[in-house]
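User: Here's a chain of 693 residues. Predict its fold as tokens.
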Amino acid sequence: MTTQAQTARKRRRSLSSRLFTWLTSMNLAIALLSILAIASVIGTVLQQNQPFNDYLIEFGPFWYEVFMTLKLNDVYSAGWFVLILMFLLASTSACLIRNTPNFLRDIRSFRLNAQEMSLRAFDHSRQYESDLPAATIVERTQGLFQQLGYKARVKERDGETLVAARKGGMNRIGYVLTHLGMVVILVGGLIDSKMYLKTLNMLGVVEVETRDLPVSQVPQESHLQPGSLAGFRGSVNIPEGKWGDVVFIGLKDGYVVQNLPFKIEIKDFFVEFYDTGMPKSFNSNIKLTDKDTGEVIDETIRVNHPLKYKGYNIFQSSFGDGGTELEFDAWQLFGTVGTKQALEGKVNQERTFEFNGEQYTLEFRDFSLYNVNPTEGPDGSRENTNFGPSVTFRLRDATGQAVEYENYFQPVDFDGTKFFLSGVTPEVGAQQQFLFIPADRNNSIETFMAFYATLKDQDEITRIAADLVGQTAQGQQGGVAQSAAARSIADMVGTFVEQGFSALGEQVDQQLAERDMPPEMAEQARESSFRVVQSVLMRAYMETLQDQGVEEFADRDADFFEKALDVVTVIPNYGSPIFVELTGFNQIQSTGLEVTRAPGMFWVSLGSLMLTLGIFMLFYIHYRRLWVLIKPAGVNDDGGSARHRVVVAGTDARKNIDFDQAFAQFSDELQRQTESNEQKNPPSDPDNPGRPE
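Assistant: Prediction complete.
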């Protein structure tokens, strides 16, 4: 049993020893550092903590799933990244534990037990013979060491004297500082990571909230109180004139709420733009009020110029809409076409309405005061044009399907014609398409809506068609035939309005095929049908202008008519029963603030200083040792004083050409001062100095 227990203990020791050796290996450290370097590159190139939809739209479903699985949208807080940091911390700490005691002993020791055979085996080793007394040689050797900055010790042993010297012990301290600096940096990084929050969540102390709730409705289990030892990075959007005292920290698939020890009120927010329409700078005038002391700070923060207060950093990170108040007309495109209803709304709010028995929801998403887009100038050159304010909203039906629109406040000029623009995005990731509604003489949309209402009124179109074919009250038979022709023309106009020109052509071709007409007559009849429809459309347009008091028909009216017909045929595919015309707004902006608390930053800075200092010591301080062994070598030829053999040896922790030169200079100077002659073929046996090698 005793033998088995000892064997088991040896196996356990062997396993722990192998594990410790693997943990302190250079290969593991290089592998971990390489992975961290690659992850850091990804975290730098790929924008972090963006909305999920942005990644889905930019990279597609496949890579979106890859990014979300690997948490590449938040690399520095990903579990695998933190785990690698912890492994690197353990590896570096193990190296320190294993090597630091040896290094400390090494820089305190002079190695006074070095033997002649070992000294002669050094790469840097020379031997001399001197007629000077041993005491004189020792004295001159110590003086030379002192002159060169070495610390020396002398040891007498068995008739011989060893002078050992060393300098540059701080090189070994550099190793310790380098590794200790890395440990301190990693500890600081872990303090500022989300490891603390993830641990609290794992223990059930903090719950992740996934619902989109007002702060007042977020459960207390999802709130963090101020004063935590861990760092955090959270964000919050605060509209102008409002205040906030919390930030939201993304965690897993939701968030937690970090309460702040102060309130932040946004007094004013303003943005400066480049000519290209890109924001040049955005600034927030804020009022910070300490909850405990009542201290008030008024400050303007801008990008890269944060407000620092009691360990908290408040950054200007983004801007958006803070609930702009909107006034708009809802023009009906179906049902009672051409009528409008004046309504009001707010960005980030919803408005429901019913149409033809179905419920719809208008979700106002954003408001933009400037929309600068590249356009083609009169000479063909590209230039930037401000399209003016726009509102972005979604129209959601009862089934939950939504189409996103972006409608512009004022008409935009294209080649001398002004249009009201409405951008349509039928689904997420789809390309935005535009509806161009021509503006009338008064830069209004009313003429088009009135014209479209006339075209959608079947009775009115029938009346116009009847007038066109000359319907009279003379003769019942003639009247019946003319009435049928009018209805047929009105039906063709309806087909054109509802389905477009191609559907009209198919309808005419089908009617002519039923009459079995010769090809020449059929072609003439087809052209005649199109001309009749064109005439009815023009008559409807002319009556619309007359109703608006237009007395003279101009070229611009003819151009309006052609462009209006292009719009009419695509309205059925617009996807909305109403057209939202923005008529007024009161812009309220929102500033996006990022609040951070980084207690680990001090340790990261300290570790960086230690790492820099340690690397400097490793590269620029040379740890060197020199030995001079003096021992009797016989009596002079004249029978006078005894001769002494001087063995000089040295080593440098970093083998380089500098030490080759330094050792040669030292040994040459020692030879000169001790009046020695170099032995070219020294004896191999120190106990028989007269026997050659």
